[in-house]
Structure formats: C-alpha cells, structure tokens
Specification:
Blueprint: H1 3-12, H2 22-35, H3 49-61, H4 63-68, H5 73-81, H6 86-93, E1 98-106, E2 109-118, E3 122-130, E4 138-145, E5 153-155, E6 167-174, E7 182-191, E8 224-231, H7 234-237, E9 241-251, E10 254-263, E11 268-274, E12 280-291, E13 296-298, E14 306-308, E15 315-320, E16 331-342, E17 348-351, E18 357-358, E19 366-371, E20 376-385, E21 388-389, E22 393-398, E23 404-406, E24 411-414, E25 416-417, E26 424-425, E27 430-437, E28 444-449, E29 453-462
Antiparallel strand pairs: 1-2, 2-3, 3-6, 4-7, 5-6, 7-8, 9-10, 10-11, 11-15, 12-13, 12-16, 14-15, 16-29, 17-18, 17-28, 19-20, 20-21, 20-27, 22-23, 22-28, 24-27, 25-26
Helix pairs in contact: 2-3, 3-6
Length: 464
C-alpha cells in the first residue's frame, strides 16, 4: 500500500465515529458547510473534509476522540507536529497535505518520509525514524539539494535527539527563489559516543575557560545516510498570491513604503522599502494582521521571521501567520512597537580596566567585563519583552586601533548578576548575554548593538 492509499485508509477510519462523538462531529460538519471554505485543489477524501477539519482540535481536547484515534497515530502525530503554527494547522485542517510514504533502511535504522506541506515558497517535511532503542540516543543532520547552503534559502539545520516512531519536522524557506519541482533530502543519522565516567587526570580550570576555545566542527561517524528523491505536486507548489501595495506610512518620523504582500498557505510576507533620508534603520517590529471578522494573524515564531533589506541595512521583509484559509476578504496591518538602529549612533565603548562605559543605548541595561585566564568575558543585560528576549550585539567587536575581532559564540541566562551580592536578580524582566574575547589586544573594546531603542507605535495600514 503506498502513502496516498494509506492516507485515504487512515482517514476512512474516522467515518466510524465513536457514539460519544456523534453530536460533536455533526456540529463540526454543520459549521464546515456554513463556512464553505475556499477549495484550492481536490484530493480523493470524499465527504470526510468536515471530520478532518475538526480533527486537530478534537485530538488535543477530547479524550474519547483521542482514544478513538489510537489506530491512526500518524495523523494524530501530524496534528501535534503542526500545533505550534496556526498557518500549518490551518493547512492540515483544509487537507493541504501531500502524502509521500518513501521508506529506506540502513544499519538497523529505518527512515520514512511521511508527508510534506509545501507551497511556492516553503517546504515542511515530516518523517519518522524507527530503530532499536539499544542503539542509544540518535541524532540527525539534514541536507536538502537544491536549497541548503544556497543563496535565498534558510531553515532547519538538524542535530536533534530522535525518538523511535516520532514524527519529526524539517522546514526550509525559499526567500527570493521558488520551491523547486523536486529535491533530494539526505538524513544522516549518528549517535553520541558515551562519555567516560573516569575522573580527569588534571584538575579542571575555571568553568568559563572552555569558552575561549574556538569550536571546531568534525563530521560525525554516521550510522546511516539515507537520501530521498521527493517530487512535489505542482498544484501545491503553484499556490500563492502577491498583492502589489505601494502604501507609504510613517513611524517615529521615519518614512517607509509597504510594497507588497505575499500570501501563501504556509505563511505571509510583507515587504517594505525604507526612505533613504531616514535617520534610523528598521531592525524589528511588533505587529499583527486582522481581518474584518476579528481573526488575528501574528508574527511567525519559528524559522524565518524577518529578512534584511536587499538594498541597504535594516529589515526589509517580515513573516506572519497566513490568512490563506480564512474567510476574511479584508486585512489590516497593526504595528504596535518598533526597534530602531540609529544611523549616526557611535559604537559603545567599554574600558576593560576601569569598567567605564560610553554611548550605552537605552536598550542595553548594563554592560561589564570579567577577566579570566583565557581572556575576557563581556556581559550585557537586555530586556525581556512579551516573553521574548530582546537585544544582542553584532558578532564582531573592535579595539582602539580599529582592528576587528570575530565573536564565535554567545550564551545567555535569565536575570542578571547583582553587582554587590553576586546573586541572580530580575529573572522575569531581563536576560544576560555573554560572549568571550580570546585574543583581544588592548584595554578598550568597541561594540555595535543590533538596535538602540524601542518606540511604541499605533499604526493601521490596509493590506486589502
């Protein structure tokens, strides 16, 4: 049985509704009929659309329904896998799924690419891995060809602990190119070597000393390398709508033009063009879309969330949840806050001997350095806003002579250290970002914040 046949068979099992759910599914069917959602393509699912539309919600909130679905774990796992994304959840509810069903086995590891949710600009792959637990903890690296490592794409890099039989997601965004008609996915599985329990021969140094050692990546000894050739249904990869806008608006005295909106089943993109006379670069926005029915579509929370302006600095494109499957005919963009990087702002200056700081922007609450055996640790405190860590520095610093140094790793922790007691405080309102300077020469370091300030805004911009 191929995956398309299995997909239909699994859905067919939903026809045998448990008695305790008769009224639930009937209500869902009536609601689906009333909505008359836009159908973009046809799959041989018969009259089960209403049942499937109710599936994602019911599987998480109804104990009887979840029990009744015990014989179709793959669909249940698909609903769980997309639960983090309103866009992908809506795609599943609207049968926007292409079954794949390709399986390969190597060295006791069996990988099956189960489904794909794809449109013109994004690929979301779902696969399972079956193996004997005696193999230990397994991890996987992924390679997508064409796409991975090429200009204009971004997405999952791999290396996560895998559970036997669990549905795992791989995603890739195609930023300024379209999703190809076919691609090759290579899943490279490896296991971590068990760590020795023996005591180290020499006493350990300071716990931060290892931060000064530049990470060196070594290719794992792969247990299995499985390559799948995947061809996408052109009905899916053609989906998307581009709305030309050319709407000018102003935020905090800065002028922008909203040039277009791209609406895909998996996400929505808004593209902006900044006026060259602006005195600040746009580095981030808090915003949402709303239709005439009060449905809100928030900023993306995973994968690509924004893309830099191809004609200059700052952000030029933002990703949001998709209204593709909604009933609304009108959309309005609501902007509530903006992150700015001032063009004429000097770099932050930190004296490593005295701790004196100059030109510290409001977004950085505190900045200090700690000297260790291997070098210097720089610490910066940033705010937590709407449960999101806000702030960072560019991945490079400069000394007094202008020499540039690369920062190869960052670490962060909630709260900050009290300068008097040394205790962690304010763990709910700020976080501390730390990074090492191993070979830094001199006593003065210059840093470049990712942005300088946040302003509250109230802007409503019609999209359609």
């Amino acid at each position: 049985m191929n995956r398309n046949e299995e997909y239909r068979a699994l859905l067919a099992e939903l026809e045998q509704t448990p008695p305790e759910l008769d009224s639930t599914v009937e209500r869902a069917s009536r609601r689906s009929a009333q909505r008359k959602r836009r159908r973009l393509f046809s799959l041989p699912l018969g009259s089960l659309a209403a049942c499937f539309a109710a599936f994602v919600v019911l599987v998480n909130v109804s104990v009887p329904f979840a029990h009744a679905c015990g014989s179709i774990p793959l669909l249940r796992e698909l609903a769980k896998a997309v639960a983090w994304s309103p866009s992908l959840s809506a795609a599943v509810e609207n049968e926007y799924v292409q079954p794949i069903g390709q399986t390969q086995t190597q060295n006791g590891v069996t990988a099956t690419v189960e489904y794909v949710i794809v449109d013109r600009k994004q690929v979301n792959l779902y696969y399972t891995l079956d193996f004997d637990p005696s193999l230990g903890e397994l991890y996987a690296d992924y390679k997508i060809t064409p796409g991975q490592g090429s200009a204009g794409t971004a997405g999952t890099a791999g290396s996560m602990v895998l559970e036997p039989g669990a549905l795992t997601e791989i995603n890739r965004d195609y930023v300024d190119v379209d999703v190809p008609e076919a691609l090759d996915l290579t899943i490279s599985v490896y296991r971590e070597e068990p760590k020795s329990l023996e005591e180290p021969a020499e006493p350990m140094g300071h716990p931060l000393d290892s931060l000064f050692e530049k990470p060196v990546w070594e290719e794992p000894d792969y247990l299995a390398e499985l390559t799948f050739h995947l061809e996408f249904d052109p009905t899916f990869t053609a989906q998307g709508e581009i709305l030309p806008l050319h709407t000018e608006f102003t935020l905090d005295g800065q002028t922008f033009t909203l040039t277009e909106a791209e609406i895909y089943p998996t996400h929505l993109r808004l593209s902006l063009r900044a006026d060259p006379d602006n005195t600040a670069w746009l580095e981030g926005m808090e915003m949402y879309l709303e239709n005439e029915h009060g449905e809100r579509f928030e900023k993306s929370i995973n994968g690509v969330t924004a893309v830099g302006d191809p004609t200059g600095e700052g952000m030029g494109s933002f990703w949001l949840d998709s209204p593709f499957f909604s009933q609304g005919q009108h959309l309005t963009l609501h902007i509530t806050a903006v992150q700015w990087r001032d063009k004429d702002a000097p770099r932050v200056r930190l004296d490593l001997n005295t701790g004196a700081v100059e030109h510290l922007p409001p977004v950085v609450r505190r900045l200090w350095a700690e000297r260790q055996t291997g070098g210097v640790i720089i610490n910066a405190v940033f705010p937590i806003r709407n449960d999101i860590k806000i702030g960072s520095f560019a991945h490079k610093v400069w000394d007094e002579s202008g020499r540039e140094y690369e920062i190869w790793q960052f670490g962060s922790s909630y709260g900050c250290q009290d300068p008097v007691t040394g205790e962690r405080v304010d763990t709910d309102t700020v976080f501390t970002e730390s990074f090492p300077l191993a070979d830094f020469q001199g006593d003065t370091v210059y840093l470049e914040p990712s942005f300088h300030r946040i302003t509250a805004e109230t802007a409503e911009i019609p999209i359609r």
